[in-house]
Amino acid sequence: MAVGNPFKISSREAKPNDDGTYTLHFNCGAEAENNLQASENWNGLFRSYPPVSLSGIIAFEKDFLVNRKGVAVDKCPAPFSP
Questions:
Q1: Residue ranges of the domains in the chain?
Q2: 48-58, pLDDT tens digit by residue?
Q3: What are phi and psi of 55, to 5 degrees?
Q4: What's the whole-model pTM score?
Q5: What DSSP designation does 7 have?
Q6: HEC sequence for 9-65
Q7: Please, are residues 25 and 34 in contact by the beta-carbon 8 Å criterion?
Q8: Confidence tier at 81 by pLDDT (50, 70, 90)
Q9: What is the pLDDT of residue 77?
Q10: Helix, strand, or coil here: 74?
């Protein structure tokens, strides 16, 4: 569960890397871009919506095969106290 603000990151809010990919950070502090503070033993959900038109699907496939852009996730250790 996200325990702060922001409590979610969508494609409208996330800042892309210079190469067009996205890196999501968890518990890396306020200075980390695209960072969510999460509680101990948290679960998350990542949604990705593919194109729906045939031309969009073909363009997506061609772009993916050439660029292979994706999402990286960086989980930083959270300082939990027992």
A1: 22-75
A2: 777 889 998 88
A3: -65, -35
A4: 0.55
A5: S
A6: CCCCCCCCCCCCCEEEEECCCCCCCCEECECCCCCCCCCCCCCCCHHHHHHHHHHHH
A7: yes
A8: very low
A9: 59
A10: strand
